[in-house]
UniProtKB/TrEMBL annotation, chain A:
It is a peripheral membrane protein. It is found in: Cell inner membrane. GO terms for molecular function: ATP binding; ATP hydrolysis activity. It comes from the Bacteria. Residues 2-260 form the ABC transporter domain. This is ABC transporter ATP-binding protein. It holds the Pfam family oligo_HPY.
Amino acid sequence: MLSVENLSISFHTDEGRITPVQGVSFSVEAGKTLGLVGESGSGKSISTKALMRLLPGNASLSPETRIAYRARDGKTVEIHKIKPGSSSLRHLRGGEIGMIFQEPMASFSPVYTVGNQMMEAIRLHRNCGKREARELAVEMLDKVGISNPADRVDQYPHEMSGGMRQRAMIALALSAGPALLIADEPTTALDVTIQAQVLDLMRGLQRDLGMAMIFITHDLGVIAQIAHEVAVMYLGTIVERGETRDVIRNPKHPYTQGLLKAIPSLETLHDRLSPVPGDIPSPTERPSGCPFHTRCPDFINGICDVNTPVETSPLPGRSVRCWLHNGADSGRSAA
Amino acid sequence: MLRFTLERLAGMVVTMALVSVMVFIIMEIPPGDYADRYAFRKFSGTGVSVTEADVAAIRSDLGLDKPMVLRYFDWIGGIVLRGDFGQAFAFETSVVKVIGDKAWLTLGILLTTLLLTYAISVPVGIYAAVKRGSAVDYGLTIFSYLGLALPNFLLALILLYFANKWFGADIGGLFSTRYQDAPWSLGKFWDLVKHLWLPAVVLAWSAVAYQIQTMRATMSDELNRLSVTAARARGVPEGKLLLKYPARLAINPIVSTIGFDVNRIFSELPIVAAVLGLTELGELLLKAYLDLDMYVAGAILLLLTFIIVFMNFVSDLLLAWLDPRIKLGA
């Protein structure tokens, strides 16, 4: 239902042009969840912001970018061509694609009640009156497991606890009935126990409402629980893509392998944690060749730092951008 | 909201009571009183020698011989119960008669100036923040510096010159000669409006320049908030979004400084009034002080502080309405 090809985003800053996202391609199928994983600064958030044209004014999409979205009425919307301020963009935002954010407190306006903001979304996208919108808001709050929804609907965000606010945020995003939900680290700011509840809730809601989801996180453990497919991002490119289960069992890219090793586990309590060495370079000083070569344990001198790897497919249903796997598949990546 | 309003109202009453005591003490501080001044005026140069007893007689006539505390309660009691601000000795009539019209005109200039200030600076500030970094934004910034740098009286003179040249406006005053002493009528009111814009523009000038920058800065901050992106992500139309989310919070520092703006207008008013030939309270206040005409001075001081305190009260209510977290005490 959503296909993204060659998404590149540039920012014009005082220090010049930086391109934090380069040539990203992925697709999302109806009813399925795509997980986007990566460290902070890998460009996963801005990639999804581009899907809703929420990038700031100094950002621009490259001319090769293609973002196609098939709406519920069967029409295909070319998101990269859509005009800012047009009614089709307003319909897309919220009505077709919903979004929830990492900071539930900051994503609500503090000066309006939760119900006010929900009813606003409902009335923008569903043709209904005030009373009906309110009933729907209460119903949605109930659905996300908030007790006393009829009272809570009139509360301000600061009167709720963190977990409850994130539930309310989910209810807000879902109240307009989107077919695709983008969740930008929705559990990162929450306690572990609440994190599990919210994940559970989102999985349940996805099943009940039959919507697709893009789930952004830096936590592969969370991905394992919720995503059907996963795309691992590093410095603005997708380095590995595939079915979640396969990727976690048999990671091909050294970065994915490093991320998996870095997850703390109870079984290996006495071992030291093994982080991915080094820091993520700044997007202004993008390394030449493979962007990961500065931190890669399997770095091949003279190749990785010179040539940018192309996407290859070492296994069915898997794509990797790495010179380690290019040899095995040289027939397709001769370019 | 009702409870909040009542609390603030009580606060205002207490403040005004304290202010009235202070005003009364300030009135007492200058050496001598109106009895001395009266005796001096009446008999100086006539060759009549004035004794202490004569002055004391005048003093007792004017009621100035009673103890201070008693006079304070007489004074404040008269104001609160009967709206009687006492005697204007030098004018040999009541304070209300002396101040009356001038007070209303001062209030008119003040409110017009405030309305003009906010009606221009808030929308322009929002626009500058939205178009941040554009040519319009830079132009407005240059205007702001000009506005802050240009002295009021100079601006008043320039505007007066052009108003007269282009529109044939009268030089100075708040009324045309035709309406100067006429009773209030629709015609006189319209005449007042035609004269009021000039002092209002002069007085609002620097405040507009300043508040545009305030609004632009806070609006720029608010625009970067996640809640604004979140609202945009649910498809709220841009115009409505700007007013409902960032602008409502960005206006906060402007609303909370209404009291300061009133204060600033009062302090700039006398010099502007002098240039434009307006009758307002500042000039009268100075004269009343020189004459030791204490009840006139007291009434003016009390009125001015009351307006400032009242505008602060209004600003508190507006703030609570803008941001419900304030009255919820969170």
